[in-house]
Structures are given as C-alpha cells and as structure tokens.
Design a protein that fits this description.
Blueprint: H1 2-15, H2 18-48, H3 54-61, H4 69-77, H5 102-109, H6 113-150, H7 155-204, H8 208-213, H9 216-258, H10 260-307, H11 309-314, H12 318-370, H13 376-417, E1 440-448, E2 456-465, E3 470-474, H14 481-488, E4 496-501, E5 504-505, H15 511-518, E6 519-522, H16 533-538, H17 546-555, H18 559-564, H19 582-594, E7 600-604, H20 612-626, E8 630-634, E9 646-651, E10 654-659, H21 661-667, H22 670-682
Parallel strand pairs: 3-8, 3-9, 6-7, 7-8
Antiparallel strand pairs: 1-2, 1-4, 4-5, 9-10
Helix pairs in contact: 1-2, 2-4, 2-6, 2-12, 2-13, 3-10, 3-12, 6-7, 6-9, 6-13, 7-9, 7-13, 9-10, 9-13, 10-12, 10-13, 17-19, 19-20, 21-22
The structure holds adenosine-5'-diphosphate (ADP) and magnesium ion.
Magnesium ion is lined by residues 481-482, 604-605.
Length: 683
C-alpha cells in the first residue's frame, strides 16, 4: 500500500513544474525509501507477532509513545530467555526488601568476566554498525535521487558500492548480534548456575530454626524463579542497555552532523514525549496489575466453590456461590475494559505523535532541502537515525523497570546466600571413637524456640543419661520431650544452661561429627529418600560397603523383608518411602541409624505410629540395637519403656518425677496416674 502511495506520488511529482517540483521530487524519494523501510519493519513485526496478553501489550506500550509497532514487537521478541511475559509477571509486594549485594554478585561474575567483556564488545560493535547503516542508506538514496534526476545510464554501477557496503554491514551486524547473544547467554547461564549452587549450599547450612520460620515453597522459589528473573534481567540489561545507549549517543551525533537544526527540533520534542509515554505506560501497568489481581480473585472464588463442591451442595449454596462469582467477574470485566480503553487512547495518541514527528521532520527537512541545505539522502538518513533513537529510548525505558525487577530478584537470592547460620556444620572437637563413653547430661537447660521466644518449653531442665543405660522420658504430648532430643542433636542451642557429652559442652564439639557419628536418631515418622533401599541405609554412613549395609539391616530386623522383594536391596522405595509399610519403613530407618554404629541412640516415639504387630517386630529390633549404647527413649506408649533403667516424667518443661517403673508405680504420683489412664484406654 505504501509502495502504491509512493508510485502515486511519483506520478504526481513528475508532473509538477519548477523548483517546487524538484523539491517535491527529492522529498518524495526520501519518503518512498523510508516508507519501504517502515513497511518492511511492519511485515517483520507481523511475522514475529504472536498473541500476547493485555498485560504484555501494556508492557510493550509502556515505553515512549513514539514507537511504531515494529520497534516494540522487536523488543518483545528480543527477550533472550523465551519468557514471553517477562515484563509483567505479577509482582511480589514490596516490603522490607533485602538489599542487592554487589560484592557477592561480583564474585559470581568474575569467572565470566572475559566472556562478558567480549559480549559487550560485540554488542558495542553491532550498535556502531546500527549507527552507520542509516548513513549508508542515505548514500544509497542520494544515488537513486541523482539517477531519477539525471537519468544517466550508470545506475547499476553507481549503486554497486553503497549496496555492497550496506550488505556487508548487514551481514556483519548479524554476525555480531548472534555472537554477543551466544556469549551473553553463556555468561547468564553460568552465573545463574553458580548462583543456584551457592544458594542451595547456603540454604542447606542454615539453622533448623530458619526452616521453622520459612516456608519451603518460598525457599524453592528463590532457587527457581528469582534466579531466573535475575538472569533474564541481567542479560537483557547488558545487551540492550549497552546497545541502546551506544545507539542513542551515536545516532544523535549523526543526526547533528546531518542537520543541527532538525536535531534541535528533535531534542526538544522527543524527551517530552518519551517522558509522557513512560508516565502513561506506568499508569497503565498499574491498572493492568489491579485487573490481573481481580481476575485472580474471581478465580479464587470459583476454585473454592468447585474444590468444596460437597460442602456447597450440602448447604444448598449453589445460587449464592454463583452470585459471588458473577460479582467478582463483573468487577474484573469492568477493570479490563477501562484498561483496554487506556491502551486504545495511548496507542492512538502515540501513533498521532509518531506521525506528527515524521511529518514535522519532513516538513522542516523539506524546507531545508528547498534551500539546498539538505539532500534527499540526508533526510532519509535522518529519518532512519531518528527512528533508531526512538527505538533505543523505548527500549531503555522498558529496561528501567527490568533493572528494578532484576535487582530485587537478585537481592532476594543474595539475602539467603549471605545469611550465616548460628550453628555451623563443621568445626570443633571430635572425641575419638574408642575414648567416647557416651554419658550425656543436661544441666539447668532453659529453652524456648526462636520462632516463639516468650514460650519456655524447657525450664531449668536437668537430666543425666548414664553410659550404656536406657533412659525413658514420658509425659503429655507437647510437654517438651522431642525438644530434649532436638537439643541433644544440637538443632538448637539452649538459652540457658548446657548439654554435655562426656563432660564436654556440645557447643565445643563438631556438630557434623556429633550428628553424623556420635548420635543415631530415629523418629516417629522416618523419611526415606526416593531411591533404593541400599542407598537409603547407606545414607547413614556414606561409603559403607554392601556387607555393612546387610549387617545393619539384619540388626534392624529388616534383612528378611528386604530380601523377599523381587529386587531385594535395589528396590526403589518411592517418594518419601511411600511404597513401604510403616513397619518396614521404620526398620529401614533403624538400619540407617545403626550403620553409623552410634554411641548414643535417640528413639523419639519410634513405634507409636505402628500397628501392634509391626510394633513388636520393630521393638525387638530396637531392643537389640539398644545394647551397648546410651539410649534416650521418648515414648507415649508405656509398654515400650517399662524396661528402661530410668524413667523421667516431663511436665510443662520440668522433670516432675524420676525412678524405675516399679519405684514410680509405688510412689503413686504422675507416672502411676499415666499408667492407670492408659490401662483404662486399653480396656
Ligand atoms: N519447631 C518448633 N517451633 C516452635 N515451637 C515448637 C517447635 N516444636 C515444638 N514446639 C512447641 O514446643 C512445645 C513442646 O513440643 P515437643 O517437644 O514436640 O513436645 P512433645 O514431644 O513432648 O510432644 C510444644 O508446645 C510445641 O508446640
Ligand atoms: Mg514429640
């Protein structure tokens, strides 16, 4: 269509007489080439165009109002990470955002420095070429215009030089562009990989209290989407930021060299429009975010109703749910309509302004051409260079938002990379196996969980576990029994008092040695990993031989049932061990604890989730495991603790009674009461 219009103009122009005719001819030549360039861009844009959501549309409109569709879509497509909706992911609320740590970032980036420099260099080169291309286009137009004016026969010859030059520029620019994208994605991917590894390492080392306070989903999010967002922003900002700044600077110089007067005009008009466009763009983005939230709200209503359809039906609330949903949907419909109107006005205005700028340039440029101060080629160069500036400015205004998002995603990642745990995993004394006796004593321990500072779970708690003896702790649920075990494992440190192993404060001992070798811990609901039984048992002692694994399994009464599986020890237990029965799982867990041959064994309600039959098998395994060790048994069921050397009754964080089974029964206190109540329940 554009071309047709050009042809039409050409016919009209060729009939126009006098100087004004030659002026018109010269300017229409510039226009034709410009129009063709525009048209090409438009078509390229249509090819690259894929359906985008309203949000994305706003995102790409967010830039200055100056842009034609082509330029914008190019920017949408240039996202190096295939994240189509990168610009407009629903943002997390800004509250007490962590700070971006540049030093840590530098550490991650340093190994990639050369690749980054090379990428920057190539991007810079591509930008310089982009500045040159309008100038060569101008040369080309000058040849064309000379030819149409003079009709001398050397058209092909004259065209050859600028065409070849232009082609080689295009080719070189393509090469440089793909080169820097390759390098930059290498840098981005490697930095992201290191970021993930560093973060994961740091997370694994955090205190148990840290995990009490944080949701797993949030932590996993930092490993995945935050790193991803940081990476995308990083690549985009480096590539496009560098290109855009170079192009703006370079093109402005060319513009100035071509025509200082026209440039003066642009300098006044363009920033105003860019600023205005960015402002309206950000308003529209906010609108779009609200609209998205409203859609989510409506979906939430539907989700709840459909998910709990039995409850809805049982209360005959279908009509009410329908009404609730339709209210929310209407709201979101309204908001999206307003948003659509905003986008429409914005796009309309930006088209008008864009066209006015082109018109103004041609108008002013035309008058310069009439005075022979400007050639047709110069006007052409000017228009293309001005468009490059517009596009670069648009991209920079998009990049500003990207920088903010990238920095805050990076800051969220670095927050946990930089977090130092209070209890380190390694460092401290190790007691050699043969001199380790296994006497444990809690002395005046007062403790409250870090997540609930006011609530003292243990108060002035003292208890000694003699070596080779079994001590049982009983008491109501919530009385603090598991807390005692957690303190011995040094998952937490006491607020007051201390825990000693063979007379050494466990804070002086190496925590990994303490947990990994000195203590074996078996809990009520053991968690197995989704691998083979062999590997699960070996988890207790990495590098253990197959024979050691078999021996541990035998000790745990597990060898028999494991061998009865068709695949024996190679049986994969499923996620968290779901394919094993409770009793089997527990026995694998016992084998896993026994393979380290720990001096101290903690059994925290190890049999209470089992049915009577498996309880017996597991109990037999535990009894065998207890010999020759210091054992702390925490139990709800009294059948499991009657044989203990010492029984301690814990109530509200204090030891209220201690003695053997018969002594405590005779005393007729708390323990006797517990036994009586349990006997009654059994009946
Ligand atoms: N990780 C934790 N963070 C905060 N409070 C906890 C945590 N674990 C347990 N508690 C609280 O500490 C108290 C003692 O819990 P626990 O030692 O598990 O009791 P028991 O094992 O005797 O049933 C309970 O009030 C419980 O709510
Ligand atoms: Mg417990």
């Amino acid at each position: 269509m554009m071309i047709l219009r050009c042809i039409g103009m050409r016919i009209w122009c060729s009939h126009a007489p006098g100087t004004s005719g030659s002026l018109a001819r010269r300017s229409h030549q510039a226009l034709c080439v410009y129009a063709r360039a525009q048209n090409g861009l438009g078509r390229a844009a249509q090819r690259a165009w894929r359906p985008v959501r309203v949000g994305q549309a706003v995102a790409f409109l967010m830039g200055p109002a100056l842009l034609s569709l082509g330029g914008h879509v190019v920017y949408c497509q240039l996202d190096l990470n295939n994240n189509a909706n990168l610009f407009l992911e629903p943002k997390k609320k800004l509250h007490a955002e962590p700070q971006f740590n540049w030093r840590e970032f530098w550490k991650l980036l340093r190994p990639q420095l050369w690749a980054l420099l090379a990428a920057s260099l190539l991007a810079f080169g591509a930008a310089i070429l982009n500045i040159q291309i309008p100038l060569v286009l101008g040369e080309l137009v000058n040849v064309v215009s000379r030819y149409t004016r003079e009709y001398t026969g050397r058209y092909l010859q004259d065209m050859q030089k600028p065409v070849m030059k232009l082609l080689s520029f295009y080719a070189l620019q393509g090469l440089l562009t793909s080169g820097y994208i390759v390098l930059l994605s290498r840098v981005g991917e490697r930095v992201a990989a290191r970021m993930r590894k560093t973060l994961f390492k740091s997370l694994l080392r955090q205190d148990v209290a840290f995990f009490d306070a944080k949701k797993t989903g949030m932590l996993v999010n930092r490993l995945t989407s935050d790193v991803q967002e940081f990476k995308s922003s990083f690549k985009q900002v480096v590539a496009q930021g560098l290109r855009s700044v170079t192009q703006i600077a370079g093109c402005f110089i060319s513009l100035y060299l071509i025509s200082p007067r026209l440039t003066g005009l642009l300098v006044v008009v363009m920033p105003t429009l860019v600023g205005g466009g960015a402002l309206i763009g950000s308003l529209l983005r906010r609108l779009s975010r609200h609209a998205q939230e409203q859609v989510a709200k409506a979906t939430g209503v539907a989700d709840e109703a459909l998910g709990n359809v039995r409850t809805v039906r049982a209360f005959a609330m279908e009509d009410r749910e329908e009404e609730l949903y339709s209210i929310e949907v209407d709201k979101s419909c309204q908001m999206n309509e307003v948003l659509g109107m905003g986008i429409a006005v914005f796009q309309g205005l930006s088209n008008v302004f864009l066209n006015c700028i082109v018109l103004g340039t041609i108008f002013t440029g035309g008058s310069l051409m009439a005075k022979n101060k400007l050639s047709a080629g110069d006007l052409m160069s000017f228009l293309v260079a001005a468009q490059t500036v517009q596009r670069s400015m648009a991209s920079i205004s998009v990049l500003f938002g990207q920088v903010v998002r990238g920095l805050s995603a990076g800051a969220r990642v670095f927050e946990f990379i930089m977090l130092e745990p209070q209890v380190f995993l390694h460092g401290g004394k190790k007691i050699p196996f043969h001199s380790l006796v296994g006497q444990v004593s809690f002395q005046n321990v007062t403790f409250s969980y870090p997540t609930r500072p006011g609530d003292e779970v243990l108060k002035n708690f003292s208890l000694t576990l003699p070596p080779f003896k079994t001590v049982a702790i009983v008491g109501q649920s919530g009385g603090g029994k598991s807390t005692v075990a957690a303190l011995l494992e040094r998952f937490y440190d006491p607020n007051q008092g201390a825990v000693f192993l063979d007379g050494v404060d466990i804070r002086m001992l190496d925590p990994s040695w303490l947990r990994g070798q000195a203590i074996g811990f078996i809990s009520q609901e053991p968690v197995l990993f989704g691998t083979t039984i062999m590997e699960n048992i070996r988890f207790g002692k990495p590098g253990a031989s197959d024979e050691e694994v078999y021996a541990a399994a035998e000790q745990a009464n597990a060898d028999g049932f494991i061998r009865s599986f068709p695949e024996g020890y190679s049986t994969v237990v499923g996620e968290r061990g779901v394919t094993l029965s409770g009793g089997q799982k527990q026995r694998v867990a016992i084998a896993r604890a026994l393979i380290k041959n720990p001096r101290i064994l903690i059994l925290d309600e190890a049999t209470s989730a089992l049915d009577a039959e498996s309880e017996q098998v597991v109990q037999a395994a535990l009894d065998r495991a207890a010999t020759g060790r210091t054992v702390l048994v925490i139990a709800h069921r009294l059948s499991t603790i009657m044989g203990a050397d010492l029984i301690v009754v814990l109530s509200q964080g204090r030891v209220v009674e201690a003695g053997t089974h018969s002594a405590l029964l005779n005393k007729g206190g708390f323990y006797a009461e517990l036994i009586r109540r349990q006997a009654k329940e059994l009946k």
